[in-house]
Amino acid sequence: MSDKEVNEFTEKLRNGLLLAEKQLLQERAARGETVILSDDHGNPIAVPARDIIAAHKEYQ
User: Considering its fold, how many domains does the chain have in total?
Assistant: First the structure.
């Protein structure tokens, strides 16, 4: 693969993952559910999906 092909593939992959994450968060927010994330120390925390959507414009 050329560098151009690798970059195109990487961009498509990144866009697909962002879309999947956005859909997951929107579905969970619609049901009033939480998402498990980790804090700065690696400890699990539950965060409402709607809070994540509100804090990050790429999920809106």
Answer: 1
